[in-house]
Amino acid sequence: MADIDIRITGRAGRITFSRPQALNAMSYEMCMAIDAAMRLWRDDDDVALVVIDATGDKAFCAGGDIAELYDTGTKGNYEYGRRFWRDEYRLNAFIAEYPKPVVSFMQGFTMGGGVGIGCHGSHRVVDDSSRIAMPECGIGLVPDVGGSLLLARAPGHLGEYLGLTTGRMAAGDAILAGFADHFVPRGTWADLIEMLEASGDAAHVASHALPAPPSALGEMQGDIDRHFSGGSLAAIRASLAGEDSDFTEKTRAALERNSPLSMACTIEMLRRLRAEDGTIRQALDLEYRFTWRAMEHGDFLEGIRAQIIDKDRNPQWQHAGGTVPDAAVRHMLAPLGADALTFEGEDRQMKIGFIGLGNMGAPMAANLARAGHEVTGFDMAEVSIEGVAMAASAAEAAKGAEVVITMLPNGQILRAVAAEIIPAMDKGAAFVDCSTVDVDSARAVADQAEAAGLLAVDAPVSGGVGGATAGTLTFMAGGSEAAFAKAAPLFDIMGQKAVHCGAAGAGQAAKICNNMILGATMIVTCEAFALADKLGLDRQKMFDVVSTSSGYSWTMNAYCPAPGVGPQSPADNDYKPGFAAELMLKDLRLSQQAAESADADTPMGALAQQLYTQFVEQEDGKGMDFSAMLPRFEKRHRG
Ligand code: NAD
Hints:
With 639 residues, the chain is an alpha/beta fold. The chain folds into three domains: 4-332, 2-enoyl-CoA Hydratase, Chain A, domain 1; 348-504, NAD(P)-binding Rossmann-like Domain (Rossmann fold, 3-Layer(aba) Sandwich); 511-635, Orthogonal Bundle (N-(1-d-carboxylethyl)-l-norvaline Dehydrogenase, domain 2), CATH 1.10.1040.10. Helix content is 48%, strand content 13%. Strands 10, 11, 12, 13, 14, 15, 16, 17 and 18 form a nine-stranded mixed beta sheet that branches. Strands 1-2-3-5-7-9 form a six-stranded mixed beta sheet, sandwiched between helices. Strands 4-6-8 form a three-stranded parallel beta sheet. Helix 2 crosses helix 16 and helix 27 (581-598) packs antiparallel against helix 28 (603-618). The longest helix has 29 residues, at 506-534. It binds nicotinamide-adenine-dinucleotide (NAD). Nicotinamide-adenine-dinucleotide binds at residues 355-361, 378-381, 394, 407-409, 413, 416-417, 435-436, 461, 464-465, 579, 583. InterPro entries: 3-OH-isobutyrate_DH-rel_CS, 6-PGluconate_DH-like_C_sf, 6PGD_dom2, 6PGDH_NADP-bd, ClpP/crotonase-like_dom_sf, ECH_dom, HIBADH, HIBADH-like_NADP-bd.
């Protein structure tokens, strides 16, 4: 993703905001990419710590990208915003609770969403240029992204002061208020980061730090505590009105600009968090209650209009000039019931669209539904699967889903379905194609999905209908780390192993290589049984020997083409598929097409394709399982 650079360097998981032209404002996709990478690194022993920095001098991250929130919100679509906030807050909690050191380097502006990324880690670095702020009350929100917890824990009543005035903290102020830990001059950041990458040891941060510069905020602490301790917006306003000083004049003007409802709710949130000695999760839960309602009942859309869209700086706030009723505060902060924010470890149901419910898709969708996910399916044919709701079209099944899975016959159909569903999918959702298709189609669909702001994975499977039913498939996946991480929990349900093979198309490449081996092996297994028959060797004896000797293979041991021998397989069911011969032919053609374009010599693959072509097109193999090659060989003679 161009706006954020995520990689591993040495022992460090590295995240660099690289959208300096927009002050590194964080979009939903950027947020999800950070989330996915940090999840992978948490369990990766090679990653000792995470280092987050940003390009450009002006900002680490000046906030969340709110244009899209405004756009959707003014059209009456509150869901997009709620989802953005929900997933962003989950990431904030994840960073705060991260089991490895997280080191952030915050030059210039770090505001709102940027605080959520930069100020919850274990080692938070600032320099002379740093300006940290929670500006939410100015746009009709409350300090969020876990910022309310930092404000509640700041000394005295700095929290109310910073939240209500939206004031900016320089390096010394941020260290005093608990938004940063270390003052390190910018000139030494590059060396320090290199050391962190090479050693994986976060102790280097402290050894580079200089004493914190003096804090202007600290000098105002007496005034701040005196005027901001009243416990309500009315009391704070009255206290400021009762004294004439430079401090009270500036502070009154700041409060005048901001949303009264947001300020009153902020005071109440800080009170509750202090009283309960709140955790990051409690803070985010409380914030989410407000932001969930902010578009419909708060001043958020008006605040964005005035500050960012029309830029008239003249927002028409609710309760302007009057007192904010307690009931309004209680309403904004009331629990959300079933819509409440949940965190990792708390059961979370995903909304999944599943398109293509044939031999493979149907049992895969059933397993997802059984695991508690909300699955909506679509197939051209009439299908009914326990626990899966059926939609009238592919687009309807995809709408509003976090993940859409496709399990379709070929690349052409996949391209047609993708063209229909990509426009219907929400930004940030994942498009996971599990069909076996040509590498070109996989890459084309992934490009299209990514251009529409989706995560894309090609994840063909191995394991057949038996594996799909038992939830023991192997997934071979291509796509970004973020996309893979999003789909991984679902692969866990539908399969026993998922291998991230590389970029888009890599999953299909692995699949066609595997199936070239499978096709050729099935043929030789069938011809060996036919030969054994003619040599008078009992099939069971042949199985007993080969399945435990060097000729063993999946086609012999797990999917034996001889009826009554080995575990149950399509051979025991009159060769009804299973894995149809025409699908095997499809995969062999894909392998030869790929071999052709990559200039690879694959004589066994080519012969396997030729035999399956003959079988499917001239010998009634179509509609039979691919192991029905055995009865074919039984009837044949040499020459
Ligand atoms: P299938 O023919 O049983 O299922 C495909 C389903 O897609 C059908 O139900 C069909 O009605 C539906 N479909 C077709 N066009 C559609 C459209 N435009 N919109 C919605 N639905 C549509 O095939 P399968 O065996 O389930 O295989 C699916 C994919 O999995 C294939 O790409 C195959 O190569 C791959 N695969 C199959 C096996 C296996 O053992 N069957 C194993 C590994 C991979």
